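Hello,

Following up on my earlier ticket. Below are the two sequence lines again, exactly as submitted.
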Amino acid sequence: GQSLEQPSEVTAVEGAIVQINCTYQTSGFYGLSWYQQHDGGAPTFLSYNALDGLEETGRFSSFLSRSDSYGYLLLQELQMKDSASYFCASSNAGKSTFGDGTTLTVKP
Amino acid sequence: DVKVTQSSRYLVKRTGEKVFLECVQDMDHENMFWYRQDPGLGLRLIYFSYDVKMKEKGDIPEGYSVSREKKERFSLILESASTNQTSMYLCASSFLQGSSGYTFGSGTRLTVV
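Thanks for your patience. The regenerated structure is below:
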């Protein structure tokens, strides 16, 4: 089976840095993806890590350690618009299993 | 602008009805997926397809079936709708290797009464 664990809620202030962790237990693991979902909207793809290390895309970075079955999403210079749910997802032969999501609240 | 289009944003159906949810993508993706999303439960995979005429069960296929007659279209069928199938249904597509992530449709919020 596949399972992913991530915190249910995180709160941070505007301009701060926040890290959302994800641990996974999967068979046939290919890589770890991150998605953002605003209230009432569809999930949108943020990043994908297949290899160990850090991937940076603007204010967002994602990290993977395959040996620790662990990854995180790092959001820098937080803005109010970053308030959303964030999902990690493990890829296995083209299909993904999603975590339950982390609700990020950014306060002024 | 590439997209995944789900035919209905909101649907209300009666218990026992046969329900069809349609999804069309214009990106020539091989993979298509149906998920349902419920509060606190994340996204759960119902069915997926890697190619035309091909389908695979996901984690929660009971009470559902799918059809993929053309590469761009993937339909989810609720054979006999029940109240516990009230949910947000999300269709997604991706390239075969999946490293570029999924593109999701806007979702269909189905209420079964």
